Amino acid sequence: MPKEKKTLLDFWEDQMRQSHTASNYFFRKSPSHYHMMLLVMSAHKENKKLSVEELKTKLFKTSRPKSALIITEACEKGFFRLEKTSTDQRVKNIIPSDSFIREFNEYLDTLKNISY
């Protein structure tokens, strides 16, 4: 196989070598972390609002307190941010940060370009 072709295994190993503070590590901590990332990015890509409460409800097999901890940590690390709605100040929507959106898109592009 030519050197310039990257396999899925090579890609995975590269991802795992990256900093433990990076989003690729954070969102692979558990299935709940990964599911949260997919829910937030899916809502973002579809231009839909996703509230904190909706996200907690959609996460399967994850308690609401555990969901809240993951959301808080993702916000502290700068992957997501919370935005109050104009209609009800108690409701907060989860928005991916610009840097995380770029990182996520690069991740998807790399996966699309992997040759077997």
Explain what you see:
Helices cover 56% and strands 9% of the residues. A hairpin with a 7-residue loop joins strand 1 and strand 2. The protein is mainly α and 116 residues long. The chain has one domain: Winged helix-like DNA-binding domain superfamily/Winged helix DNA-binding domain (Arc Repressor Mutant, subunit A), CATH 1.10.10. The model has no long low-confidence stretch (mean pLDDT 86). The longest helix has 16 residues. It starts with 7 loop residues before the first helix and ends with a helix.
Mean pLDDT: 86
Count of alpha and pi helical runs: 6
Q: Segments where pLDDT lies below 50 for 5+ residues? A: none
**Widest sheet: strand order?**
1-2
